Structures
1.
Amino acid sequence: MSELVSDKKDIQRIKTYINGLDENMEGGIPKGHVVLVSGPAGSMKSSVAFNILYNEALHNNKVGLYVSLEQSYISLLNHAVNMEYDLDKVNIVVIEDLSKINQDIKKIKEENKGTLVLADIGTIRKEIKGKNIEEGAANKGWLNVIKNLIKKIKLSAELDYFVLDSLSAFYVLSKFENPRIELFHIFEFLRDAELTSYLISEMTSESEKYSEYYVEDFLSDGILFLNLAKFRRQIIREISIVKMRTTKCNNDIFSLEYNNKEFKAKFGGQNPLL
Ligand SMILES: Nc1ncnc2c1ncn2[C@@H]1O[C@H](COP(=O)(O)OP(=O)(O)OP(=O)(O)O)[C@@H](O)[C@H]1O
Ligand SMILES: [Mg+2]
């Protein structure tokens, strides 16, 4: 959010499309926020982020860029099909070859539908390796690759949302000498680009922080924490809003369910947590 508002009604909010959660955060995440989506393996971080971009494309004709560093676009889309998303209802554009970016970007507004741009950096990395270019040399430029992708899309189309899946994988590719300074500039870049961003952070359930360097916890505008909790002989999925700037929220731990094509957050006091 870069503009000063005089009335709280003027704060535009983006739904998380998690039924029960938006109602507990004044309707959603303020537009332009950079939000960490943190949690352990399998806690549905990618699914929650994908779900927001998919629904914003479907209902509001928006354009979202989902940058996947390790999971291939095929694996991501198969997962979405298994979750019964109707992928024909949105325009899906895959970027898996950097030399064809311009052709791919042209497809963004080809159809009169919202668009989900999937940038499959894992495949691009494998291609680079196949061409015998030293990955280390290419790695130095990964941040620029992502920034340029955002800039290029914004030049010829609109871009509303950005997902980085994951921040943790990104750190393996780009070693930071001074994380506090470099991360500050990355967060500012996303805010200046007027994107509402979701940065996926892989953290264990026991972790006291929500990001690798810890500074991201403070630099981000919001943190959604997804967790897997043991309850009797079951693993329960949980979600909580750890922080959300400019928002009065309920910080309870909700249980998270995905049923009938919809995410639901339920109060801790309700089933299945008695
Ligand atoms: N149709 C479905 N309904 C409910 N849950 C599903 C369905 N299909 C897959 N899942 C669950 O989704 C989980 C994986 O979700 P997702 O890939 O979003 O998690 P993640 O936190 O991003 O995982 P990772 O850390 O491996 O990237 C799986 O553990 C699987 O059990
Ligand atoms: Mg994931």
2.
Amino acid sequence: MAYEAHMEVHPAVLVGAINSGAPHERFQQLAATCPVIHNVDGSVTLTRLADMQELHRMRGICAQGLVAAGVGASHGRLIPLDLDGPEHTRYRKVLDPLFSPKRMLAREAEFFALSNEVIDRFIDDGEAELYAAYCKYAPGIMFLRLMGLPETDVEELLVFNDAQLRTDPALSAAEATDHRNSVTARFYEYLNAVLDEKARLAAPPDDVLGHLLHVEIEGARLTRSDIVDITFLLMIAGLDTVASNLANALVRLADRPDLRRQLMDDPTIWTSAAEELIRFESVVSFSKRASRDAIEIAGEVIPAMTTMYMLWPASNLDESTFHEPLEIDLLRSPNPHIAFGLGKHRCLGSHLARMELRSGLRALLERIPDYRLTEDPDFRTGGNPRSPKMVSIAWDTATDNNRDRTVASLSKGHLE
Ligand code: HEM
């Protein structure tokens, strides 16, 4: 294969592709032709799955945070994302059991029922803007339940999230920073009050915050600042990533009645279908890494401590790994995508994300199997996670033949 060696790309080109909401063809082409993009600021971007895997097998690779510049401006480290080595491992040992496959699977019927309750609110209208009414709402509430935060705070917490992850184009840079700082300060105050209240309870509640307050690492409890830094990351990583994946998938499926029909005809394929939509949409657009020593990757020498971007969506469209990567194949097997990242920082919430995507899509499509987009979805800028601003749809209300369905009819899914 002929590669465009030493191709120089202005980051704006990649960002432009992500912000367009449809970076697939561009990214597939980059993975096919340019394994190492040299960005004009001296950083590089890797595009191929095998190279990213090789990189993560090397010693001395460190994380440089997943999130965009500006996030975390007014607080400490994002735990565990900004940590490496044994310190990172210690925190993951505490966090992994809280989001384990078994624990997430045990909440699937509850999430499916919750999704149907949310759908009940708009099903008779024949039209809805699904991003606000469904995609961010059902996973958002489920996430707050898991964390042990009041469901009624979902809107306010989504404002906190938006302030960290997305810049309002109407604001100047200074105004955006002020807004982010004031929302962050409010969040700290809010979270500390919740933690104070939980700490006063005689028995620790069975939720993530309850566990964090009582868990011990090597005989010592987590400090309050650790708990706040962990929760901060969990909020920005977990509150609307699934919403973005769900929204992208629903936009995509609007034009694909054949795929919707396939899903309706064979309820055994939800798990593999969700996996394919996670691969195809790959909503976390990039993460950063650096190597403590100079390394050679894809035939190029990368100097020590060069920022290396992992363009996850490109790797998941890499034709040397995936047959016809631009095709959505709901039965794709194997499907070794890396939309949840690689190595020690691989996504903590992947089992939750899989469960919610599978059940959230299923709940909606069973109630509204046929729908059409009524407005251009228009994509948010920022791209991490990549998401439409809205999913405005209309449907024929007579098609809701599942009004009386019970959660008992939900078939058992598989997590990993
Ligand atoms: C479709 C949904 C999601 C996608 C595509 C996704 C993707 C990713 C990716 C690519 C990484 C790796 C970052 C890196 O290597 O620097 C990551 C890390 C992480 N994700 Fe997710 N994520 C999703 C949902 C969630 C959810 C629901 C949670 C909630 C618990 C979550 C929590 C985290 C955390 C805490 C990390 C950092 C792990 C560490 O540094 O050890 N993610 N995610």
